[in-house]
Design a protein that fits this description.
The chain is an alpha+beta fold. The chain has 2 helices and 5 strands; from the N terminus they run αβββββα. The strands form 2 sheets. Strands 3-4-5 form a 3-stranded antiparallel sheet, covered by helices on one side. It has a two-stranded antiparallel sheet with strand order 1-2. β3 and β4 form a beta hairpin.
Length: 92
């Protein structure tokens, strides 16, 4: 059974291998937040999870797989396949 913690770990790995920001938002000295463009993160709703990526400073997101929210195990497999695709394009 895939846990939320395991999903969070694989998303962190994805952010690291793509040199994307690890944090979804940055809090500034004035207390305001700015979304970190490029950050991958989990979205939870409807009893499932989706992989979202920040696309603008206002926090707009893209559903990476365009699959909506799905069970944790299904999303885990999708993210691992995505990572494999990314790694296969990198030179050894």
């Amino acid at each position: 059974m895939t846990t939320k913690r395991e999903l969070e770990a694989v998303v962190e790995r994805l952010n690291r291998i793509t040199n994307s920001p690890l944090a979804t938002y940055t809090k500034h000295e004035d207390g305001k937040y700015t979304a970190n463009i490029g950050n991958y993160h989990l979205s939870g709703a409807y009893g499932g999870y989706a992989l979202h990526r920040i696309v603008n400073e206002s926090g707009g997101v893209q559903d990476v797989f365009r699959s909506g929210h799905c069970p944790k195990a299904d999303l885990s497999r999708l993210i691992y396949a995505y990572i494999t695709g990314i790694e296969s394009t990198q030179t050894v």
